[in-house]
Amino acid sequence: MSPINKSALNKTSTFSISTIKSHGELIAAIISGLLIGLGFLYPIYPEAFFIPAFLIGGYYKAKEGITDLIANKKLNVEILMIMAAVGSAVIGFWAEGAILVFIFALSGALETYTMNKSQKELSSLVKLQPDEAVLLTETGEKIVPVSELNINDMIFVRPGERIPVDGLIKEGHSSVDEAAISGESVPIGKQLGDTVFAGTVNLNGTLTILVSKEQKDTLFQRIIDLVDAAKNEKSPTQQFIERFEGTYVKVVLIVFCFMLFLPHYIFGWDWKETFYRAMVLLVVASPCALVASIMPASLSAIASSARKGILVKGGNHLESLAALKAIAFDKTGTITKGQHEVSDVVVRDGVDEERFLQSVASIEKLSTHPLAAAIVQYTVNKGISLLTVENLDDFPGKGISATVEGNEWKIGKPSFVSKQKDSIFEIEAVQFEADGKSIIYAGNKDGIAGIITFKDAIRDEAQKAIENIKQLGLYTIMITGDGEGAAKSISREAGLDSYMANTLPEVKLIEINKLREAYGPVAMIGDGINDAPALATADIGIAMGGGTDIALETADVILMKNNLNRIPEAIGKSKKMNRIIKQNIYFSVAVILVLITSNFMQIVNLPLGVIGHEGSTLLVILNGLRMLKN
Predict the structure, then answer these.
(1) Fold for domain 150-213?
(2) Active-site residue among 153, 166, 177, 330?
(3) Residue 330 annotated to the active site
(4) Contact assessment for residue 465 and residue 567, using Cβ atoms and an 8 Å cutoff
């Protein structure tokens, strides 16, 4: 046999063994069911089939229950079922015991499958990250594991391939599908100098990318780590149910002990019927459905939220979102884009606005001032070409000067641009500053020629998102360190209920606590280092995905796409999850009460009790999986 055939055979046999192991519980249940069927077909000696059906079907659940009992030293549902099955066999009800084991094993296999479905939603994120990359070396292309890439390596990504690491585009342009990161299905145009992220798909162009982060530090790996940690964070309700389970099982066993004797003396049941009803009680009173009421819904909600670009660091935070009564927003980078845009251009009488912009933008193109890029972009968008600049000189804290077409220009503060005050611009400036706008002055030998104002524009979706949040009954407020004018203007434009200006980070903590006292549970949304204390103090801290590392670490929820619309979506998902959990709990308790009552009335037998018990468990799991739908 050739080495290739041997390898293929080994892979096939390995796959077969692993498949059998992973589906062992289901296979055992099926064999148990077939043996039970044969037992009814050959009634001469049915125990020859019922006993192996009993042993094969019950192996996995017995092993699970005993292992958990030894490890945690507390009783569990599996132990109750084992006792009921063994008790049935002891009094000669082999068929009922075998059916109990079969249905319990089959239900367990189906529960495992449905739980794995929500787990796969989470683990599928890992599969989106490539294992290999095309490294560009001096000798050509080389395929290497992504884990071996270093910062400043150059890699090559072809159309249709997933980008393996975070980096900067050095050559090429393309559209990139960032759905794995942000949940947005619309491709993003990328060109020279733009940042690209691991796990995203290069759609239609070849890209040469400079690696900016190692695999373990990429944004995508951070998402995977956060989601993985979230799986183990249990909600308060889940923690209570798990604590309650141990106590409840003990109570059931105590009632079971009384059930073995009291009905014989109180109701006159014969001993066989009394013992049989005690076995049925062990089955129908087991809290399987109650225990399964929360985790499937919680995991499914976390998984579907991650697909939408909402990273929730655990079921406890997801559950708490529904209880929010107020939300506090930071301004810069949260309500606003954090990028200044030109708002107004005002020129002196006799000055041509287009020529004014042309001269100012030509000079600002060579400046490093934060507002310079906004002027250049505004001018270019108007179709105005830029001119050659000479004699550029920078005056830190004051402004810059340069010569354009033989005319000397000064740009910056009014005192730097001109020694003489211009009453017209002073009046305009007062109004602009009241509206929260930044102003720069530009002038030539004749004095101030004009002013350009800037505003930090609110996010495109901010008004709609805040409107939706308010419709959910939440109070909205902006808490910012910016001045009164900017805070008032942005708050009014965004449609917030209120605002606070000139607020230092330590004061934000005090205001968050005041909001909690006035309204109830409060969330804080921010993106910077100065927001981290408030994020930690709030009942729920929400960070914008483009924010600082400390904000992302402190927050309980992260919006990967910096999209404020995700906030009402997350609150809505939390409310839906809590509704489903309540439905599951009420339904589980109702089924248990009905089955226990039916048992005392001698209506339900052991197989029917198992069907009712396990059926209710499957129903609550399937109901929880509805959270996978967006």
Answers:
(1) 2.70.150
(2) 330
(3) yes
(4) yes
